[in-house]
Design brief:
Radius of gyration: 18 Å
Distance between the termini: 38 Å
Number of helices: 2
Number of domains: 1
Largest sheet: 5 strands, mixed
Protein name: T9SS C-terminal target domain-containing protein
Organism: Taibaiella soli
Keywords: Signal
Helix content: 10-25%
Strand content: over 45%
Strand order of the largest sheet: 1-7-8-10-11
Order of helices and strands: HEEEEHEEEEEEE
Number of strands: 11
Structural class: alpha+beta
Length: 150
């Protein structure tokens, strides 16, 4: 009986321990290609292929910036985009955590003043693939905005 209880405690340990933080690599200096149709609100995706990434995003290379190229062999890219707006909007992925078989991605959106031009807010991050993950869940604060099966 003691062995059974001990085995159950060991099996439940990950659930008791809570969420496990996941290291993210923010992908800066990319833009949403103008051929991509964005719906109203958050447009969340999990990208596992270079061809899909290249179809949707372009690199905004300058003489002084650095572009990190995603490695799709060992990584996924999570993306969040908003439709074009003339309001200054900072969108970024704050953190990602594993909870059970879910990868929970937490977003932060800050808006500011009106601009004379439009921009398409975008947040991209690369993270290690994990065979135990079944769903990627995107959150704005405590509200889940999208759940994607992977």
């Amino acid at each position: 009986m003691k062995h059974l209880i001990f085995s159950l405690l060991i099996a439940l340990l990950p659930a008791i321990a809570g969420a496990q933080k996941v290291e993210l690599v923010s992908l800066k200096n990319y833009f949403v290609k103008n051929t991509v149709k964005l719906s109203k609100g958050y447009n969340c995706n999990v990208i596992s292929k270079k061809s899909t990434f290249d179809k949707n995003f372009g690199a905004a290379k300058t003489a002084t910036n650095t572009i990190v190229t995603p490695d799709f062999k060992d990584h996924w890219v999570v993306s969040v985009a908003l439709p074009a707006t003339n309001i200054t909007t900072d969108l970024h992925i704050e953190k990602a955590e594993i909870s059970g078989s879910n990868l929970n991605v937490r977003l932060v959106k800050q808006t500011g003043t009106q601009q004379t031009y439009s921009t398409t807010p975008l947040a991209l991050a690369m993270l290690s693939r994990n065979a135990n993950i079944k769903y990627v869940c995107f959150y704005d604060g405590s509200k889940m905005i999208k759940k994607i099966k992977v």
